Structures are given as structure tokens and as C-alpha cells.
């Protein structure tokens, strides 16, 4: 391995290999690149004071140009980009609903966490949605359990209604 691919720990000067950074055993803590041993010491000191660690120096905000901000991995989502909070805009679909046919034209997905209150809420949401749309006849439904990714990865009941 060439020396240009190595980094140095800013605490002790030890070599840090790319695979250490990739796996997260070497990382930035308190604004410094640290090797696995210094990270362990930092975490031990952090745990010893109950999560309170004083930074050596205050963090500075760096202003980014508009071009570099566009390449950022963090994106802003709005109702316009992901759909309205209460569902999909039915007006944008070209195919008309046909309640008399045997086949489904569209689908609607509902989900809830796996606890009694959340499932009760989802049941009410489904019933209110069906009651509020006289032109809808549910033709088929499926359900499954799956993980919804978010702040916490929680198992959810996922109900798909075809209408």
C-alpha cells in the first residue's frame, strides 16, 4: 500500500488505513481524525463524564457555494416533491375509475406501526377514505409486515387496497 493512501491520527500520529475509515473504527471525533485507540480513549472519557465532553475549540460554520451545495447528499423534501400529506393527487391519473369492472384501476397504500392504537388509527383512516369516495369500490386488498426506515426502523403493517 502506498503512503499516499494512509492518513495520520491527529492525536497520536498513528497510521490510519482506508479500511479503518470505511468500517468506522477510525473516525473524526471532536473535529480531529483519530485512530482506533484514540477513539476508544475518547469514548471512555466521554462515557466517564456522562456524555459531556468539552471541545478543544469551537466549531466554525463553513459557507458553501451554491454549486457544492447542490452536490450534497442531504436534500430538502416538500409536499410538492413527495405528494400531499393526505395522499396522492387523484387528478393527475389519465385512466378513469371503473367501479363496475372486475379489474382494479389504482391502488392506495396504508401503513401503521404494530401496536393496538396505531392499527386502530389506520383502520379508521381506511374507513374514512372509503366513505369519502363514493366512486371507489375496493376490489382486492393485500397486507404484509415490513420495516419502514426513518428515525427508527420499525416493523409496520402495510395494507394495499386495489380499487
Write the layout of secondary structure elements.
Blueprint: E1 7-8, E2 15-16, H1 18-23, E3 27-29, E4 32-34, H2 36-48, H3 66-70, H4 79-82, E5 107-113, H5 116-131, E6 140-148, E7 154-162
Antiparallel strand pairs: 1-2, 3-4, 5-7, 6-7
Describe this structure in words.
Helix content is 27%, strand content 21%. It is of the alpha+beta class and 163 residues long. The protein has 2 domains: 3-54, no CATH class; 95-162, no CATH class. A 3-stranded antiparallel β-sheet has the order 5-7-6, covered by helices on one side. A hairpin with a 6-residue loop joins strand 1 and strand 2. The chain starts with 6 loop residues before the first strand and ends with a strand. Mean pLDDT is 77; it is low at 67-85.
Relevant terms:
163 residues; 27% helix; 5 helices; 7 strands; alpha+beta; elongated
How much of the polypeptide forms β-strand, as a percent range?
Answer: 15-25%
Any low-confidence stretches, pLDDT <50, length ≥5?
A: 67-85
Q: Give the strand order of the largest sheet, numbering strands 1, 2, ... along the chain.
A: 5-7-6
Rounded average pLDDT:
77
Order of helices and strands: EEHEEHHHEHEE
Amino acid at each position: 500500500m502506498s503512503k499516499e493512501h494512509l492518513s495520520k491520527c491527529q492525536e497520536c500520529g498513528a497510521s490510519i488505513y482506508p479500511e479503518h475509515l470505511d468500517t468506522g473504527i477510525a473516525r473524526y471525533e471532536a473535529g480531529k481524525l483519530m485512530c482506533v485507540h484514540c477513539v476508544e480513549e475518547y469514548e471512555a472519557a466521554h462515557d466517564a463524564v456522562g456524555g459531556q465532553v468539552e471541545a478543544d475549540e469551537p466549531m466554525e460554520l463553513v459557507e458553501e457555494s451554491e454549486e457544492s451545495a447542490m452536490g450534497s447528499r442531504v436534500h430538502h423534501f416538500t409536499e410538492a416533491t413527495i405528494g400531499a400529506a393526505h395522499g396522492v393527487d387523484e387528478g393527475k391519473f389519465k385512466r378513469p375509475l371503473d367501479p363496475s369492472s372486475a379489474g382494479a384501476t389504482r391502488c392506495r397504500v396504508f401503513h401503521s406501526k404494530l401496536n393496538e392504537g396505531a392499527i386502530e388509527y389506520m383502520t379508521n383512516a381506511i374507513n374514512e377514505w372509503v366513505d369519502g369516495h363514493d366512486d371507489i369500490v375496493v376490489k382486492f386488498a393485500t397486507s404484509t409486515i415490513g420495516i419502514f426506515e426513518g428515525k427508527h426502523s420499525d416493523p409496520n403493517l402495510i395494507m394495499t387496497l386495489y380499487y
